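1st attempt posting a full record on here, be nice pls
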Amino acid sequence: MEQLVETLSIDLEQERKDILKKYRRLLRTAKPFLKDNDAKLIKKAFYTSVEAHKDMRRRSGEPYIYHPLAVAQIVVEEIGLGTTGIVSALLHDVVEDTDMRIEDIDRLFGKKVAKIIDGLTKISGRFEYGTSQQAENFRKMLLTLSDDVRVILVKLADRLHNMRTLDSMPRDKQLKIASETIFIYAPLAHRLGLYSIKSELEELYLKYTEPQEYRAISRKLRETKSSRDRFISKFTEPIAEDLEKAGLNYIIKGRPKSIYSIWNKMRKQNKPFEEIYDLFAIRIVLESPQEGDREKALCWQAYSIVTDHYKPNPDRLKDFLSTPRANGYQSLHSTVMSKSGQWVEVQIRTSRMDEIAEKGYAAHWKYKGNDTKVRGNIEQWISQVRETLETGSGDKTAAIEFLDEFRTNLFNEEVFVFTPKGELKVLQSGATALDFAFDIHSEVGVHCMAAKVGGILVPISYVLSNGDQIEIITSNKQKPTEDWLRIVRTSKARARIKDFLKEDNKRYETDGRQLVEKKLKVLGIELTAEVVNQLRAFFESKTAADFFYKIGKGYIQLDELKRFKRDKEAKERKAVTTAVIPPVEGADGKAYTKLLKNLHGDRVDSDTLLIGDDMDKIDYKLAPCCNPIAGDDVFGFVTINEGIKIHRTTCPNAAELMSKHGNRIIKAKWESNKDEAFLAGLYISGTDRVGLINDVTRIISNELHINMRGLTIDTKDGVFNGDIRLYVQDTRHLDILISKLEQVEGVYNVQRFDTNLTGSV
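the predicted structure (as tokens):
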């Protein structure tokens, strides 16, 4: 016992030394820009955090204080924030996880830090059913964005460290956190110009969701490093000589594309690693006085030197010098043909631009006073986010709708257009004349009936192009319709149109409710809150108000309620004969997990749905969007009115389901010993020859005795592409088939694909 105490005290002493070591490293990194009492304030925040978290440990067993220290290190070293950001990072969890209150933070560290901590603290309490808690938390956190962008920057640092330390989490938690990261945090980092962080978040997502593919690409990158280095050296040699002759100070970097971007390209182009040729990019970083025009001139001079040696692709030149992205990103991108016949992407920028490209929004504070247009673009985007948040509707699905629209805007490029007086307006790519009208003013948008572009009359659906000069034509008789929602792309326009329609449509909603109430009374059904939810789900309406509106407008006929009654009675009969929990709006995984534990008793995996064994006890089905087969890594998703659906963890919908509805996810694994057949799809390609189809079908039918559902082969100029739909027992069975097909003469590629990407989730 004494020895145990002694060992423990040694460990605690070592931990204390490690904590101080991390703290001193943080101070050393921050030292160059600390002023006055900054060091004292950071020290005060550090000891406050140490005291608050003194009895807490992370799942890995480490002292909890390691986490805020690591977040603070990321904030200063990788994002470039100053003292306020460091203090906020050190304290970011104290209000959520300890007895400290926002008032205590305000008293000790001031209102600015308190506001940031308040934005970072998760919102507690229950939310209306029909909304996602994660989405609502994120929406409320973003409310502070327009006041202080450091809220989001610290949150991204927090998420990055959580992803870096995901090893200690159980598999289901890894999938949920990784999915939420790829769904919202990586796009947000992209939008704020934090490209290094965005790339690392994407790679860590892949590492935990597709570990085998991540390791395979990583290994192949290591194996091809020496040949890549030789190519880069040979490619850059003549460019470097001419840059030297021109008297330019420069650094040339040859960097491989991220594992995630390579994986994404392999998946989208349906090609193996060996056929992805643009595995790297060349970046030329020039030293320059901080003068806008001088910087641009140097970049174009370097571009001229590059194109003296290599022929550029005219369709791949992107000038982000004159028109920076909304996040302030500036660079000159070109794709040129190397002597070996390989396309190479070349990026040219100054050191100032490079730092902004790596550290995004935060780096702008270092260059205050310069590039007001660049900073203005960022402020404009933040202003748009603020407007979207403030004008969002208050119905039950507002949070999820906001998250969907916000996310779709994050990756969008910009389009640059002008008013009749020559004022520059920056909208997202794909925006229409109607979006432009709402961007000028809500009243202009509401009464917009047409537009003129270059003096030519165009409809409100006209898609804007760079350089367009637009004049909006209005009419007092014009008013928004539901079709307008299909025309606009920007969140601002969509929110304004929805607000107008909401007021205009209240009458139809009221009429619809009265009609439904009368009809259900005739059918012997009382219009309770539960029945309203069932109606909404049955008629595939987003909200109850949406359902009543469709009835009031006549889009849904009242006689359809008879069909609803029949379906309702059938489900009630089934519920009597099975132990399933009736699907209800807002159902979450906890209720099902509790039921599973009751069914499974004291087993270790009692909280896990056993696919096959639990079929008679729990209502579940395989999701048609990804068609999982025995052996796939899967999870269960609690739907609103269809019980549980089993999805593959690599399902196209997995990231969205886990990030927006994490509370409705349950663990699942294959346990069936029955001989079952699962539908799977294989993509096959190669060079055509006589007898090829016969060889393929012989392996499938005769050797492996697999039943085919369909076979489609298309040949052109000696090359064939096709897909096969067939029934297999499990993933091992499928792997054997793929291996045998790859050995057929002429077959070059065999890959599994999801047999129904358009299926419901």
